[in-house]
Each structure stands twice: as C-alpha cells, then as structure tokens.
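Issue: copy button drops trailing tokens. Both records pasted manually instead:
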Amino acid sequence: MDNVIIEVLKENDIGEYSALINEVMNEFNKEEVDGFQIWFASVEGITERRGYNNWGNIYATLQFTAKIDGKIIGALEIADANHIQSFFVRKEFQKMGIGRELFNFSIKYFIDNGIILNGFSVYASNFAINFYKKLGFMGDNKHLYLKMRYRRMDKAKLMYKFLLRRLAGLRLPYRWNKALPGKLYISS
C-alpha cells in the first residue's frame, strides 16, 4: 500500500498503540489473554519497556507502527533486536502486506543503526503461526525462529563502520546512510 507510513513509535502515540494491541488481541487471541498480557498491552507496560540499553542510542525494546492517514493500523515490538514481543495488524488491513512491511522496516532500522542481527524468535499465538511461517520462520508449535546471516565481507564492513564511529567517540546516529542496503539474507 502506497499510503502506509512505517516508523518507530513516538511518545505521543503510545495510547493509540496500546488501544490497537488490545483491540486486535481481544479479537483474535481472547482465549490466550491473561493478566500479564493486559499489563503488557497497557500504556504503563509499553512505556516501561522503552528504557535505554547498552547500545546507548536506541531503546532496548523498540516499537514500530504502521499508519494510514495518521491512524495506527499495525504494531510491532522487538526486544533486544532479536525477539518479537508483539505483532498486530488491524483486521481490515490484514493480508495486504502491512505486516511484512513492518517486519522489513524493523530489519532495515537495526542494520541502519549498526546492529548485526543473528535472527528473531517469537512465541506466536495460534492465529499468527501461519503468518510467521510465510515470513520464513521455522519451529515447532508456537516457538518459532528465523536465522539471519550476512556475507562475511558485509559483516566486516558493518563492524568496521561501527568501530570507526566508536573510536572517534561519536554516538551512533539514528540512521546511517544506507548501511549495506540489500546485503542481508534470511536463511532457513
């Protein structure tokens, strides 16, 4: 979809992000919702998970949004650049490629920020298992994973760029200019 904007969750969008998660979770995963998941989807829970980590310039847990006309229609949360905490797309926008766009945006975001991805894990709801498998995830039951690999030279270039910035005493910016576009491969 051409009019979808995907970005990192902004502080002033946390309430709408929380409402979307609760709406979709109750519609598709109602039988799996417990007290922890209610807290997890709350504004308080989302805000608490946004603390800074050792990378210094990005959150330990990142939330990404997909918006149409300024309204959040998709939500993706990834912890420590390797575990999908939650992934929701509003019902009327499912099967339109928005989930895949959100996921691809997150991968590019991490690469642009100098973070080497080894893969992702997820404990999927019953409803989402087939979606994750379409993205290339493998595994048994609800425990799914996606391995990622780089060409050896690409990884070396990325680390070299990262180390040069660190040695110069600079913090990594939110975006590197096209850090190794198209050089990430997903393996099964």
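Record 2 (pasted manually too):
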Amino acid sequence: MTRSGREEKTADAKAHTRAALVAAARRRFAEQGYAATGTEEIVADARVTRGALYHHFRDKAQLFQEVMKEVASEVAEALVESELTREATAQNDAWTQLCTGFQSLLDFSTRTDTDFQRIVLVDGPAVLGNDAWNALVETHGYRLLSQWLERAIAEQVIDPIPVAPLTRLVAALLAEASLYIARADDPQAARLETGIALDRLMSGLVGRRPRPLETPPAWPASQPTDPAPAAR
C-alpha cells in the first residue's frame, strides 16, 4: 500500500471513530440527558476506547456541543425544506414564509420524537451557557433570517427597519419562545399561548399605509351672549 493510501485509510478510520462517538453520544443524551450520561457508556456504545474519545474531543462537554450542532443543523434544514415545499402551493411572499417558519419552529419545540427539545433547548443552554446558544443561533439562523427580513422589506410588507438589530431581536424572541415551551409543565398549552403572543408581536412590524389627514371637525361658532341688562 502506498503512503497516500495509508494516509487515506487512517483518515477514514478517524472519521468513522468520530462519527461513531457522536452517534452514540446523541442517543444517550437524547434518552438520558447530559448529566445522567457517562463517558464510559458512550465509548462502550461506540465500541471505541476512552483514549479515542479524548483524542477527538477535549471532554464530554465538547462532545455534547458537537451533538447539539448536528441536531440544530438538521432542524434548520428541515424547516427550510418545509418552507420551500410550501412555497409552491401557498402564499409565497417572504413575510408569510417567515411567520409560517416561526410557528413551525415552535412546533419543533414541543416534539418529543426528535432530539431537538432535550438536547438543544433543555440541556444546551444549561450545559454550554448563553455563549454557545448564541453561537448556534448565529451559525444556523442570523444569516438566513436577515435575508428573509430584507426580502420582506423590499416587498414592502414590513416597515423599512434596520435589519441587523431587527435580526438579533427576532432571533432572541424565537430562542426565548422555544425555551419557554420546552421547559413548560404543559408544552402543548405553552405552544398555543406562545404562538398567539408571537403572532401579535410580529404583526407590529407589518407596514401600514398612511391614512389621509382627517379634516378637523367644524365646531359651531360661539354665539354672542346677550348684553347684561343695564342697571337702573
């Protein structure tokens, strides 16, 4: 075997080991949560050594971060694909697509058949802190969100608001809404109430055509009062 062939085989083996660790960790984190999962369980499921784990990842938290990125990326792709499919049959202005996508994200927050709720919404901020959450949103949300907001402004559906701060504010609103739903005692009820509140807040961005100035009402002229009778 040539040197290049050996290097390629080694690279493939490393990639396979890394993928096996991420897959095993993802199953454990989704089923048991971060705190209840031990690295010995992960390496046993992946059928690798503990040394292999620490060769690829600094610690359990870094492995969790990789899993969270994978799950978030899948959800982002699923939402985009859903909206692109819907675009062919439904109203396709940018603002309608955005609002529909927002509600779809809230639906994901209630689903227990995916890893999104447990890994990204519940354990993610607790394990990695706000900085990791913000980095995740920036990677998978800011750019796409700002593009669609720019389209909505260009289509004159929403008012011409500075896009950079608007993107940050809307993203923060969606993140908090998702966290609120995932942590609620009754996620379905929280989803319904949050959807109503989100719609009302988003409606405030919709442009309103200025109404013509109203003509002030013509008040009746003051009637002169009769002069007081002269004193006698």
